[in-house]
Amino acid sequence: MTEPSEHSKTITWVDPRPQAALALTMSGLDYLRAILAGEIPGAPIASHINMDFVSVETGVVVMGATPDESHYNPIGAVHGGFFATLLDSVCGCAVQTTLPAGTAYTSLDLNVSFLRGITVDTGRVVATGRVTKPGSRAAFVEADIKDADGRLLATATSTCLVFPAG
């Protein structure tokens, strides 16, 4: 057995509380478009899995993420939490694009189906979240992750609670 080599990773982020307060003053679509444009810092979780917005439209959000070895589980593949974090993010943000100012959401459930494994050799993956039924109390979403060749890696469904903020 070879001697393991130690690696390190530095993660930086901006305090999310001021942006969270700002989000309540804007429509969800405007808020996420401002993040996409670099006018507002993104969520700190994005730093952990190298995640960023690709596109934001009403009811549809696309994000990319690039796995590295720090995302591996003990059996040498990207941990399911990487998949779940990416899928939960696109689902929640897709719902957010449908919300008016002063309205918030939170995930009630996330059901993930893992179809193929991810390793660092997979490279950048892209997740798409699509609202299937918006609502004033609950919203329903579906999502998927694909690799650069368009192969389906995972799917998810989610329900989000929608409520007035404050």
UniProtKB/TrEMBL annotation:
SUPFAM superfamilies per the UniProt record, alphabetical: Thioesterase/thiol ester dehydrase-isomerase
Keywords, ordered alphabetically: Hydrolase
Signal peptide: none
InterPro entries in the record: ACOT13 (IPR039298), HotDog_dom_sf (IPR029069), PAAI_dom (IPR003736), Thioestr_dom (IPR006683)
A single GO molecular function term of this UniProt record: fatty acyl-CoA hydrolase activity
Domain Thioesterase: 76-153
Family, as annotated: Belongs to the thioesterase PaaI family.
Protein's UniProt name: PaaI family thioesterase
Organism: Aeromicrobium endophyticum
